[in-house]
Amino acid sequence: MHGTNNTSLLFVRPVNTSFHAWVSENPAVYDALLTAWSIVMLLLCILGIASNTILLLVMARSKRLRVGTGFLIFHLVLTGLVMCLIHYPIHIFLVYGSNYWFKVPDVCYIYYFLVVTKYTNAWFEAWLGINRFFAAILPSYYPALTTRRFSILMVTSSWLVSAITMLPFCWKRLGLFTLSVVGQCVLRSTSTGGIAVSTVVEKY
């Protein structure tokens, strides 16, 4: 939705430029672009599912790959798989389907669960970056970051921060889960606090 804080990749309707104006005046072209976008996204999802599944199977066969930093990487790959398996297919279905098959409700709370998973994945990446920083720059402190207790803390805190900070949007505080111009659920910040929360949580 124009002028809102959109937290998900969207196939946006053409804006007012010469090329986009031409596309908007030719429904067949728009339909072809939307279909091509949907196919490419689905192919990327399939590729993501396959690659993440292979990684999880490899890690599952080796205990050494599931401890220390591997514990964090395992959960990073797991959330990546969930996003490719659930998050993006729902996104594609809503964008494509809302153009042809159905109307999405004005407020779509299902997006809460999708955005929490997405933000948790981002926090895992942030923790992994911190982990690599200590491994390279401050190696004497690195063992403390690879203990089982600290690894569980990193995973748990990532889920909690993402889940708790998004709750106000469910009650239309700071913002709300609403619709884009193509009918897909998006996170819309309606206040400075909402913009700050969604930006910090997404961009770690």
Automatic annotation (TrEMBL):
Keywords per UniProt: Cell membrane, G-protein coupled receptor, Membrane, Receptor, Transducer, Transmembrane, Transmembrane helix
Subcellular location: Cell membrane
Membrane topology: Multi-pass membrane protein
Protein name per UniProt: G-protein coupled receptors family 1 profile domain-containing protein
PROSITE patterns: G_PROTEIN_RECEP_F1_2
Gene3D superfamilies with a match to the protein in the record: Rhodopsin 7-helix transmembrane proteins (1.20.1070.10)
Domain G-protein coupled receptors family 1 profile: 51-204
Gene Ontology cellular component annotations, sorted alphabetically: plasma membrane
Pfam families linked: 7tm_1
Species the sequence originates in: Hypsibius exemplaris (Freshwater tardigrade)
MF-aspect GO terms: G protein-coupled receptor activity
Matching InterPro entries: GPCR_Rhodpsn (IPR000276), GPCR_Rhodpsn_7TM (IPR017452), TAAR (IPR050569)
Stretches that traverse the bilayer: 34-58, 70-90, 110-130, 150-169
Organismal lineage: Eukaryota, Metazoa, Ecdysozoa, Tardigrada, Eutardigrada
Chief localisation class: membrane
